[in-house]
User: What shape does this take?
Amino acid sequence: MRSSHKARHSFVDGVTRQFQLVLRCAASYRNPVFAIVCMSVLVLLSGCEKKEAPPPPGPPEVLVAPVAEQNVPIFQEWVAQLTGPVNADITPKVEGYLLKQHYQNGFFVKKGQLLFELDPRQYQAGVDHANATLARTQAEVERYQNDVTRDTPLAAQNAIPQKQLDNDVASLNAAKAQILADKAALQNAELNLAWTKIYSPIDGIAGDAKSQIGDLVGTSTKMVTISQVNPIWTNFNISEKDYLGIAPQISQFLRSGKPGHTPVLYIQANNEDYPRTGRVIQVNRQVTAGTGTIQVTAEFPNPDAILRPGGFGRVRIQTGDNQNALLVPQPAVIEVQSLYQVIVVSPDNKATFRPVKVGDRVGTNWIITEGLKPGEKVVVEGILKIQQAAAAAPQLMKAGGIPVSPKPYVAEASAAGSN
Assistant: This one.
């Protein structure tokens, strides 16, 4: 280093002396053109100074994370569709003209709440007629009873034929039987009159009315559907293979007759988790021949009616545990044409590429099933630097790897959690 400084100083001193000489020559000749030529020569001479080569760059700085080993719960997801536990189709029990609608479409209704009202006049007339018939029969019973009371002692004294008394008794019994029939007819007429008012059989949400005021409706008319939404059910189909994996738990559930205790998570159509957990309440009796799946039903609390029948989403259930799983941050995994690799940093800070096999993603991490060992360090940030260095100097990879300057990788706080 000192010799280079001395050489530079001697070169500068020589150029300075040459410059002074040129100036004296130019002054002696007093020629401006000659002075310019001398200055150009001097500039060329000053550019001949040798420049030092820049120092070689240091190893690239990268962020590395150790391969973590921990137990990871195994989750499975299935497409699911929401349905109400009860979806009541409201149809009238009698025929009549619709006079009034007492609820608002799409709103909550309570069990026993009046929904529709039909024209009751013909059914009120039926009740009046049944009452009149019953009253007439009751009068006949009273008359026949009087005949029996009067003719009984007379028949005992042979004042009248016994046959007359027998006819009186038969007429009285027939009239009494007719009272029972008339009472049944009256009850039926009262039912028909009561059925002109249509009430909700359940608590739920009433849909749009299919019948309008003034329509003639009958026993085949579907006027509206009311769905129970709290709780709400979701049906999903699992493969026979998945079913066999959890068959022991299902058998225990069937033997006990109680809903399962394994929590069920519901992911809505907007990929947001529903805040309340559910539970499995039933499993269908058979595997569907065409699809090889079996239907499972889970129940979710739904007090705010956020979930509606007919909606689609996904259910997620923990089906097991992955013991001693190896985890690396997802950015550390390089995917190229469905092949995966990571960059491993050796104890002597040399980076090499290594192929791996991956499993499920867990939060911000990725399970590595093959290719890594616990405690090894992988590059999370700075992968591009190593790729560029490997392309520029492939001999380094053959010599043991790309030298790097590793720094610890710190995951963001919001990245905690799992899927």
User: Anything to note?
Assistant: Confidence is low (pLDDT under 50) at residues 1-9, 414-419.
